[in-house]
Amino acid sequence: MKVKEVAELVGISVRTLHHYDAIGLLKPEQTTESGYRIYSEKNLETLQQILFFRKLGFPLKKIKDIINSPSFDREEALQVQRNMLLEERARLDNMIATIDKTIHHTKGAIQMSDKEKFAGFDFSHNPYEQEARERWGDKVVDESNAKIDKMSKDEQKVLGEEFDDIYQDLAAIRHKSPDSDEAQAAIKVWYDYLNKIGSYSLDAFKGLGQMYVDDERFTKNIDKYGEGLTVFMRDAMAVYADRNKK
Question: PROSITE patterns per the record (predicted)?
Fold first, then answer.
């Protein structure tokens, strides 16, 4: 199959396939003299694996390491991916049930306890932990996890609610200039929050903001609070870091 045919079959862009080829993640079986990429059945199987891992939040570098490992077993990988997706489905089903109950509660049809209102929320799991380790080393991540582990369930819940409040406050002012006093005061709250659970230098804080924009997973999740929030946070975090290093 040619690259355009594969793109149409899978539902991804030709540009994405070109990128996978360029970084050595998915090399087509052959390239014709006229430059056309030709993909084999084996290529399609590998692409399926890549997209399963991407759906589960794995960065491309990690996927490349996994599928190029001599010990990689496709059947075993599929089973692991299936288990991870089942866990994700269970979590989502739990949250959907909480939403349904909340709708009935809002209409007065049922009463919900405070505990039931937060069923399905789990702030103890960080899907980006491995990437954080790769970017900033084990120490900052281990320190962060140690602080969270020492907290009670109630304290962890409060931490999660504080996270949500900070993002909503930032979203409300995302149309202002990132270097405005209001924006800088709000982003300082985010910096202080991160250092409550970890140890982020100003450089790491600035780098984190850039990663929000570079990594589509972060962009997608952050922009749920308001379109353009990711870029606003990146710029505000950079200004904060640069100003406070002086």
Answer: HTH_MERR_2
Q: What is the largest CA-CA distance in the chain?
A: 69
**CATH number of the domain encompassing residue 156:** 1.10.490.50
pLDDT of residue 147: 62
Q: Residue 135's pLDDT is what? A: 52
Which neighbouring-strand residues pair with 2? 38
What residue spans of 198-226 are helical by DSSP H? 202-214, 216-222
**Does pTM surpass 0.90?**
no
| Judgement on whether residues 225 and 131 belong to the same structural domain of the protein | yes
Q: Are residues 10 and 56 in the same domain?
A: yes
Residue 123, exposed/middle/buried by CB under 10 A (0-12, 13-18, 19+)? middle
Mean pLDDT of 181-204: 88
- Are residues 241 and 172 part of one domain? yes
Q: What is the pLDDT of residue 148?
A: 62
